[in-house]
Amino acid sequence: MTARIGVYPGTFDPVTLGHMDIIRRGAKLVDRLVIGVTTNPSKSPMFTIEERMATVRREVADVDGDIAVVAFDSLLMDFAERQGAKVIVRGLRAVADFEYEYQMAGMNQQINPRVETVFLMADVALQPIASRLVKEIALYGGNIGKFVPEAVCAEVVARVEKIGRKGS
Predict the structure, then answer these.
(1) Which are the catalytic amino acids?
(2) Given CB 3.0 to 4.6 Å as the disulfide criterion, which of 35, 65, 113, 149 pairs with 27?
(3) Calpha distance 85→67 (Å, rounded)
(4) 108 contacts 77 by C-beta, under 8 angstroms
């Protein structure tokens, strides 16, 4: 029997508790979950791709399942094909996410109809969390401890201290 491989793509800048929720749940749906770490050209990352990959690897080390962390800089569907994936796992937080993700799933289906997109609703307590907002809160000196794993919190705080806090 062929292994069911899924890809969970994202920038993970930084990885949040919402991401971790989707990773834990997504890993139960497939035999192997490949976390694809990429850089979105419309976003300015706080961490390098190497730093983000190392962070994600550390955070998923204790998650049950066969999980790989792989960088990519290509069309998602090309990456999924190279990984042997038949499923793209995407997390949804709100209606606004759904509209964007629905459009992306449709485009991806046109590019590669052999790969299905599966949507997982974020845990209700984690739905408002977004990496962009986590970075913004941190840059203004706010406490992000409720939104990211403990080690990630320390890394973000250290990076903010290095690049300088806003509003000070």
Answers:
(1) 19, 43, 93, 131
(2) 65
(3) 13
(4) yes
- Residue 2 pLDDT > 90: no
pLDDT, mean over the chain: 93
- Interval 70-111: pLDDT, tens: 999 999 999 999 999 999 999 998 777 888 898 999 999 999
Which DSSP category does 32 fall into?
E
Q: Could you give the count of Cα atoms lying within 13 Å of 86 in the half-sphere of its Cβ?
A: 8
Residue-wise burial string across 87-117, b where 16 or more C-beta atoms lie within 10 A, e elsewhere: bbbbbbbeeebeeebeeebeebeeebeebeb
Helix residue spans in 28-84 (DSSP H): 49-60, 76-83
| Paired tokens of 106 | 């449709």
- How far apart CA 122 and CA 124 sit, in angstroms, is 6
pLDDT tens per residue, range 107-140:
999 999 999 999 999 888 888 899 999 999 999 9
Q: How far does Cα 149 stand from its chain's mean position?
A: 14
